[in-house]
């Protein structure tokens, strides 16, 4: 029987390989703002956050996601905070799921205002957002179709349940190609904008010089 003492009221639990040694550790979040990491029965790490820890989820090797009672969600990588964001709403559930089939799980969070967010685990950038008809009760990944492929499940407080299949790999590649093309277009538009501003400035200078003659 495994047992240990966390030190305060436990509010979140997760299993993840946070040190990259190939073995899982136990992550414990508590009401006293601490995230403790246990290897077997030994506490090997303890981090104090700004508010009570209400959500934890393993993401990928060395990484785990967390949420706080003040509306903060973020990711730790090798014991150091990679990023965090804060909202006026509260995260009710958090998990990791590779929704775009790029081989890297995204951070999925369900919020008190019904918002479902998909964020990059490396940067925290919002990749997708949708609203449920009520507060989100839970988000989870499971093979509920029994076809060997996990899907993302989102449950609302009013009983609404939505399922999201991972994008097909070619669709994911197409989406990334479209994003890259859009970024290139934006760079070109900014370059053209700067050229036009410089041309306008030259015309104004010529006009001012002519009016002073």
Description of the molecule:
The chain is of the alpha+beta class. Strand 13 (136-142) and strand 14 (151-156) form a beta hairpin. It folds into 2 domains: 10-167, Methylamine Dehydrogenase, Chain H; 168-212. The strands form 4 sheets. A 4-stranded antiparallel beta sheet has the order 1-2-3-4, with no helix packed on it. It has a 4-stranded antiparallel beta sheet with strand order 5-6-7-8, with no helix packed on it. Strands 9-10-11-12 form a 4-stranded antiparallel beta sheet, with no helix packed on it. The protein has one helix spanning 169-211; strands at 10-16, 25-30, 34-39, 42-48, 53-60, 63-68, 72-77, 80-86, 91-97, 106-111, 115-119, 126-131, 136-142, 151-156, 161-164. The radius of gyration is 23 Å and the shape is elongated. The model has no long low-confidence stretch (mean pLDDT 87).
Envelope shape: elongated
Helicity, as a percent range:
10-25%
Mean pLDDT over the full residue set: 87
What fraction of residues sit in β-strands?
Answer: 35-45%
- The assigned CATH architecture of the largest domain is 7 Propeller
Number of strands: 15
CATH topology of the largest domain: Methylamine Dehydrogenase, Chain H
- Flag low-confidence runs: none
The gyration radius over C-alpha positions equals 23 Å
User: Which structural class matches the secondary elements?
Assistant: alpha+beta
The largest sheet, given as strand count, sense and whether it forms a barrel, is:
4 strands, antiparallel
Count of discrete alpha- or pi-helical segments spanning 4 or more residues = 1
Largest sheet, spatial ordering of strands: 1-2-3-4
